[in-house]
Fold 4-hydroxy-tetrahydrodipicolinate reductase.
Amino acid sequence: MKIALLGYGKMGKIIEQIALSRQHEIVLKISSNNLHELTKENLQLADAVIEFSTPGTVLDNITACLDADVPVVVGTTGWHNMLGTIKEKCLSGNHSLLYGTNFSVGVNIFFHVNKVLARLMNKYPYYEVQVEEIHHTQKLDSPSGTAITIAEGITENLERKAGWINILTGGETADDSNIPADQLLIESHRIESVPGTHTVIYDSEVDSIEFKHTAHNRNGFALGAVLAAEWLHDKKGFYPVEDMFNFN
Ligand SMILES: NC(=O)C1=CN([C@@H]2O[C@H](COP(=O)(O)OP(=O)(O)OC[C@H]3O[C@@H](n4cnc5c(N)ncnc54)[C@H](OP(=O)(O)O)[C@@H]3O)[C@@H](O)[C@H]2O)C=CC1
Ligand SMILES: O=C(O)C1=N[C@H](C(=O)O)C[C@H](O)C1
């Protein structure tokens, strides 16, 4: 497959290596210093686009891919409040888009088990729950997209939580004393060089249950993005990454 990379930073560079190792060809690489190459003609050289840029640039890039009618895999986080608008544009034009806050197999297993665990916890009201995420200090958004997906998995399945509230700290424990009981706390920490750690903690007076995913590096995210491009390129439609997996 011919692949275009929108965003050639930490993720784009690893995706390139994995795509080449799977016999794909990279026909376009865009970062902030060659935006003039981001044209419809250049996008149409590709069978699929993989988009890992920034929360501030992702929407324009998605629009460019849909207008060029090239299937696009979107890994960038921080734009999911616009999902409805993009879905409408994608489906009305009969285009192809797959999006996800996290493409690693391990985190997608985690997402699934997190929902099962939240449903189970309806029977055990004496457990308080919170989510913690730790990422590197260059990360632009908080909470992480993955933490939002985890929080939604909890609020949609655990009756005592109606929404979530985020507190961002360097590394120290957040002060949660003002959080209403029906709100789920997401504690975000920024520590140099951490690729991504997510923990769901159920805590009672007598014990704690901690459910944790630790990324050791970015290779799992990048492989998932290449697999998503392979999965999407002959399909039309608007897909969350979970459609690629078959856990049900
Ligand atoms: N879904 C998933 O599995 C994962 C998602 N992510 C998300 O992916 C995104 C990128 O992460 P990461 O690679 O670590 O970030 P980086 O900051 O390392 O890379 C971002 C890249 O985007 C480039 N860029 C800036 N403006 C544009 C533009 N208009 N069009 C295209 N590219 C542009 C930057 O160029 P320059 O350097 O020149 O400014 C840079 O190459 C983040 O939102 C992150 O949260 C990350 C890991 C996994
Ligand atoms: O910015 C990152 O690095 C990551 N971003 C994604 C997120 O916001 O969840 C995925 C992963 O955790 C790494």
